[in-house]
Amino acid sequence: MLIREADQADWGGVWPFFRRIVEAGETYPYPLDLGEEEARGWWFLPAPDRTVVAVDDGGRIVGSAKMNCNMSRTGNAAHMASASFMVDPDHAGRGVGRALCEYVIAWARESGFRAIQFNAVVETNTRAVKLYESLGFRVVGTVPEGFRHPVHGLVGVHVMHLAL
User: Fold this and answer.
1) What mean pLDDT, rounded, does the chain reach?
2) What is the DSSP string of 106-153?
3) Are strands 138-149 and 50-55 parallel, antiparallel or unpaired?
4) Which residue among 27, 109, 115, 150 has its CA within the 20 to 30 Å range from the CA of 83?
């Protein structure tokens, strides 16, 4: 698997699983009917933020991550990074998410960030929580009933942190 900088031409490979994940409503707070062009703007970030894609040996895009400063580019919180990840559900459990997360951690270190903070990891997304914890993140707080899950109703969202 290759992880590389995304370009606008990659959106056609990301959009099908992005739409599927968002429409499921289980892990992202995005509107369930988010349109393609608005979604592209939310996911494909301009520099100095980054969006990358994970490409399998057959050239298919199987995942993507966007990484950015957590709160603002300037000021007293500019030392905190954040990121979001999407893995094509058809390729789940094959190490794509781990590879993307490891890539983001390396990027944040190389970029001089002091920590990574994930602001809203849905607590029922146990695979993601376990993955992040295995890479050293810890839950530093949980917002009760912060997410309306389509199956489980109101569930908490974790704030997760990794010191770099």
Assistant:
1) 95
2) HHHHHTT-SEEEEEEEETT-HHHHHHHHHTT-EEEEEEEEEEEETTTE
3) unpaired
4) 150
User: Is it true that domain 2-116 has CATH number 3.40.630.30?
Assistant: yes
* Cα dihedral 30, 35, 36, 39 sign: negative
HSE on the CB side for 88, CA within 13 Å?
17
What residue type is assigned to position 73 of the chain? R
Give dist(CA 128, CA 45) in Å, integer.
22
Residue 82 clears pLDDT 70, i.e. is over it: yes
- pLDDT score recorded for residue 72: 67
Name the residue ranges covered by the structural domains of the chain. 2-116
Contact partners, residue 96, CB within 8 Å, separation at least 6: 1, 54, 62, 63, 87, 88
Residue that the structure tokens 């599927």 belong to: 20
Asked if residues 1 and 57 have their Cβ atoms less than 8 Å apart, the reply is yes
Question: What's the CA gap between 78 and 7, in Å, rounded?
Answer: 25
Q: Are 66 and 45 in contact (CB under 8 A)?
A: yes
Which DSSP symbol is given to 84?
E
**Among the listed ranges 49-58, 59-68, 72-81, 118-127, which one has the minimum average pLDDT value?**
72-81
